[in-house]
Amino acid sequence: MEVDIQVVLKKMEQELSSAKEASNETERKIHLSALKVLAEVLLTENEGKKAAVPEDLTWEKMTGSRPPQIQKEKSEKMDFEDGANGDSLFDF
């Protein structure tokens, strides 16, 4: 079943407006959660129809700067005096 993008976008605008006018934090969170779900619907609905935008490009468009590069640390086993050097907490 295809979702009409204009209908979803209109509903997103309504939820955003309701979130702005919310009288308390709980009510605001409810509207923002609905907004998040609607955005996810559009993203998954259109996923197969067009090529996915690389995450780096999306980050750059949103923030105007390059995304931070996450470096994977090489984990080295620590050698303890008592011989406990397992990968699990339960290795004695």
Number of strands: 0
Mean pLDDT across every amino acid position: 75
Q: What oligomeric assembly is this protein in?
A: single chain
Give the overall form.
Answer: elongated
Binned strand content: under 5%
Number of helices: 3
H and E order: HHH
Rg computed from alpha carbons, rounded to a whole number of angstroms: 23 Å
Task: Describe the largest sheet.
Answer: none
The helix fraction, in percent, is 40-55%
Structural class of the helix and strand makeup? mainly alpha
Distance between the termini: 55 Å
Poorly predicted ranges (pLDDT <50, ≥5 residues)?
Answer: none
Protein name: YwdI family protein
Pfam families: DUF5327 (PF17261)
Region (Disordered): 62-92
InterPro entries: DUF5327
Short description:
The chain has 92 residues and is mainly α. The chain has three helices and no strands. Residues 62-92 are annotated as: Disordered.
Describe how the helices and strands are arranged.
Elements lengths: L4 H16 L4 H21 L9 H9 L29
Helix pairs in contact: 1-2
InterPro entries: DUF5327
Protein name: YwdI family protein
Pfam families: DUF5327
